[in-house]
Amino acid sequence: xxxxxxxxxxxxxxxxxxxxxxxxxxxxxxxxxxxxxxxxxxxxxxxxxxxxxxxxxxxxxxxxxxxxxxxxxxxxxxxxxxxxxxxxxxxxxxxxxxxxxxxxxxxxxxxxxxxxxxxxxxxxxxxxxxxxxxxxxxxxxxxxxxxxxxxxxxxxxxxxxxxxxxxxxxxxxxxxxxxxxxxxxxxxxxxxxxxxxxxxxxxxxxxxxxxxxxxxxxxxxxxxxxxxxxxxxxxxxxxxxxxxxxxxxxxxxxxxxxxxxxxxxxxxxxxxxxxxxxxxxxxxxxxxxxxxxxxxxxxxxxxxxxxxxxxxxxxxxxxxxxxxxxxxxxxxxxxxxxxxxxxxxxxxxxxxxxxxxxxxxxxxxxxxxxxxxxxxxxxxxxxxxxxxxxxxxxxxxxxxxxxxxxxxxxxxxxxxxxxxxxxxxxxxxxxxxxxxxxxxxxxxxxxxxxxxxxxxxxxxxxxxxxxxxxxxxxxxxxxxxxxxxxxxxxxxxxxxxxxxxxxxxxxxxxxxxxxxxxxxxxxxxxxxxxxxxxxxxxxxxxxxxxxxxxxxxxxxxxxxxxxxxxx
Length: 567
Fold this sequence. Notes:
The chain is α+β, with helices and mostly antiparallel strands. Helix content is 45%, strand content 20%.
């Protein structure tokens, strides 16, 4: 019988050792002899050579170490009870198998679709969620090349190839996925390179069915459209824009010339391209042009092309027919809603190239076809577009089609950045101070000379929008002062805002104020007044916050002549 056991165990593909009652190794199979030092181990005590690290919960298996490697030890007694058979399994392999089981469970139960390909573009991973999203079966596509599977839509294959070539992920992508037997639906997805030790092994796409999000977006859009239409009917005899040329603030020659140029453009119906950095007021000028034109009684509709995925943007601009895809309802597009008025396309350079092609066709033919429909509708509105970069650079880098540029830029209005029209800064500062006086119920009259020097010397990369943000922060921190001061600048803005050394300005200001006693009294007075303001002039609460006696606070108020102003 022993010979039969030896013959069976000899060809087992994992290390097998036979141990007697004294724990002495009496035999090793071929795998054990090759993997371990067979000649050296035979005749030695097992636990003298294999160090026990721990026992498993069952007690049948141990974790042992030999020559720096960890093994899972499984014991089995022979029928004679004279010997035991010890099976060894590499612990690293065991841990891998456990992890693999976890990964397989996760992949099959998460709601995101997973599509993985190897370095040659062959599909090696395709989970259950991906099957549901794309209507395919893993058994039909595994080990096949992406180009074979996605013949009608090579997007997956080309994106995996691009990710493998560049090593950079492709993020925040959207597309309409049409199934053979069902209506299409939107999916969002990201594609990542798979790397090991710096080497790219393949690519993986993680996708999500955005059906519910799509339905919510269209419900919101339809609600906004109904509100807008109701508003237009209620004010059919009034202008539908919020801004006019009178709302454009600025004393510089450049701004005056811009207004005159824009007014001339408003007199004709040609399409206009407005070029300007972020925050220069592109929509303010677009609305002002509409208000000044003969279209002023017609709708003005604005949309930011960067805020909406490509397929949703197509539906919003062109409209949809019921059943075009899951959740689609009969709806007019913005091109139709604009009627004889103006459609403002902000950040046109953020519109995907495929969508740019569709828009170009509409502008050329002056007709639009709804998504899923066959009927053509006339387009009679004027298009005002805006870009926040140099169009030449956008075209050279492939982000703006040249033919679309020529179609939307019959007239071009360039808005210079705020740093190129410094004279406008003071007027804008005063305008924003007055605005936030009303909002915050304050009575600030202006800014100190030191602060003005800082504001005029700053580069303003965010232009007018950034200036408004800074003034708002200064107003909130200004207390009851009638002037905005350098010390009102929030700490998180100082490093960006102050090209002139902040500490140096504060030192100069203190030198101008006089003696140390006067400076300390001014600081003490300001601290007390601010605390009283915070506590609505409750002296007891203010004293508690200042951590002084109520009587001491009263004395300081008398000494520093602090009284509450009557409103």
